[in-house]
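Intended use. Records like the one below are meant for learning the mapping from a protein sequence to its folded structure. Do not use them to infer anything beyond what is encoded.
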Amino acid sequence: MHASESLLSNNALVSELLHLLVRQFSEVESVGMESTQYRQYIVQIIRLLWNDPRCSQTVIDMKNEPEVIQLFVQTLISSFSKLTDDAFAAIPEIKSLQSLMLQPDFMQLDPKERDEKQLRLTQLEQNVRFSFDLTTDTLLLLLDAAEPWGVALWSRLNALGHLDERADDEGDGQQLPAAGPAAGGEGGEAAQDREP
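Structure written out for the chain above:
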């Protein structure tokens, strides 16, 4: 059995891993040693473990440790701000390069210089896209940390992501179900009463 399989099959180790990752994430971010790639991997792993039933008690225990959960939340907020700042800071240069490449004079530049500007634009666009993707993951983890364990916030966010489609349907005169929880929770019985 591979070491990772052995780890993931041990409930106690999985639970301890979440606690260690939360502390590690907070400490590394707080001293400014983070990297974008580091954040990507650790945020995704923490999100996965945070909602793993085997880690429910660990999450509850951490929320009873103010120094742990407060530092973690502060770190997430700081990370979210840095990611958005970095992404928006790159947009003016992207627009400038795009505008330059649309000019007739651009093709008259030295081929090496054109290649360098094209490479720079590609890198900036990739970095901005990556930063916004990671910003979303960071925000979802922050929302998870603010809620009691087991609340699948991203399910509700996914539902909100379909609001435009719902609005289009309503514009076509189609009747849509109420926006309450479909499986249990408030509004569930009302939804069942409306079924034929």
